[in-house]
Amino acid sequence: MQPGVTEAKFFACSQSTELAEKIVAAYGAKLGKIITSTYSDGEFQPSFEESVRGSRVFIIGSTHPSSDHLMEMLLMLDAAKRASARHITAVLPYYGWARQDRKDKPRVPIAAKLIAKMLETAGATRIITMDLHADQIQGFFEKPVDHLFASTIFLPYVQSLNLTDLTIASPDMGGSKRAYAYSKALMSDVVICYKQREKANIISHMELIGDVTGKNVVLVDDMVDTAGTLTKAADLMMERGAKSVRAICTHPILSGNAYEKLEKSKLEELIVTDSIPLKQKSDKIRVVSCANLFADVMSRVHNNQSISSNFIM
Which residue numbers delimit the Ribose-phosphate pyrophosphokinase N-terminal domain (predicted)? Predict the structure, then answer.
């Protein structure tokens, strides 16, 4: 290596080891070695088992709950900073706690902003993430943020299905921008669901804005948590005369009895990425890997090349 050229090194948080291995293999490198010591009370300490001095370090890990996942990322960023890494990039396939991106009632935190500050304080000099819950979260950072869109991997899959009478749907008003972007790329119609919640994860009422009669519908969303919205929307659309309903959701949180809801619903399939590892297998779930997307962007970032070709929407 020539003098002054920064070496790239890659490390994985424990919750994202499988995805990190795919990303690094696609990059053409190997994961660095980390040893994690754990105390009897649950406290843990990650340790880089190789020098990172003067290197560009990529630390790969989604920060979905539990909070240990976020804590592990923060500790590894701090360790890299204190080991004199030159550049430290936090690669967050899923940016957790992002639903708390504003004050929607008095006396509540803005967790997405807090997490951004914690990542920067810990040592991150750049963030790479995918399909944030709200685009404006990028503005919570003072460091560069590369916000990738999973549409670059989902659109080819939808096109490969060769669906006739295709209609793109948003499961709520907040996702209408995403739905319109997909519909523009696929030259299809758009419908939107309007929902009212009793409280978080509990839907009291849902209505459909648009006609799905005789249509093959594809719902698009950034995440699927309890699957309540998706399954309710799918059942409603089938009642309104849709031929079939599929769903595209970038981040498969799938908590509670989400898998049971999916199996009982009229959804034909749920297409997700591997940003979060699945808790169990399901015949209705199709996983499309985001590893190549992240590997390409990380390579371009390391070599100071444009990443604009990775943005479809």
Answer: 9-123
